[in-house]
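One-letter codes give the sequence; the integers encode the fold. A sample entry reads:
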Amino acid sequence: MTELHDLIRLLPKAELHLHIEGSLEPELMFLLSQRNGVQLKYDSVESIRAAYQFDNLQDFLDLYYAATSVLLKEQDFYDLTWAYLLKAKENNIVHAEIMFDPQAHTSRGVPFSSVIGGIYRALTDGYEKLGITFKLILSFLRHLSQEEGFMTLEEAIPYKGWITAVGLDSSERNFPPDLFTDLFEKAREMGFLTVAHAGEEGPPEYIWAALDLLKASRIDHGNSSTEDPDLVDVLGIYEIPLTSCPLSNLKLKVIQKMEDSPVKEMMDRGIKVTVNSDDPAYFGGYLNDNYIAVADALHLSQDEIIQLVKNSFDASFITDGEKRAFLKKVEEASGVV
């Protein structure tokens, strides 16, 4: 198994499901709280880390949104993103598609320009200094109204050239995709691609709605897809990728043990599934940790690991030429050529 772990660490990878706010480590949170004079209910890094204990999506989201209170200035968002990029480099991530939640900040009075400005500046530095290519995904918070989403979309217009896609995240229960049909239609008219969290805790019907109504070209999570044979067929035939997040699913009790992860079943049933870290500061591991966790629990072979890595590039929003170049590097690293 050590040999397989070494291969995982060696392979160049893409990460497609990463919430930049979810990479806020306790040390940086504490530092930013002191720098910005934000009073937290935690008096040390250790007490913050102890708070990162929860077992359901809503409790996580409550902490997640509370933690964003320390993010106030453009430099804060730069530092947050740069810290993730250093972790990405350690994990041999060569391409990252980063999600950010502007509404979690603009609702607190932080300018949209400060949020995206800091993130984008760090990403461009990451490309120039670390060689990590990137795409940026603006995620709407589904517990907020569609009207508020339209306001955020309007704020994004000056930065349209920086944003590749829009997505939908936050609390899935009781907030089905059809609540945002008009918003996503407008986003598509503006030229954005679309993705959506669906089937994390919600039923297969939410995945169908994300595909049919939001025209999502990629489904984030998609755990419940295997409950519907017709949906599995559609995902396979049309090569619609799923961005699975194993350690996230385990931490939030979406699965009870890693052996219950649907990743291998999805692969076996012809779905283009990828492995990602979601909110790694909260869920106990970055990308390599997620690969290793599923490899061990599901007894994945070397070929299956290589396929998952190749899926990460195939499912990305980069050009076909860029995909071919990255896939060649994967083959070289795995000893295929």
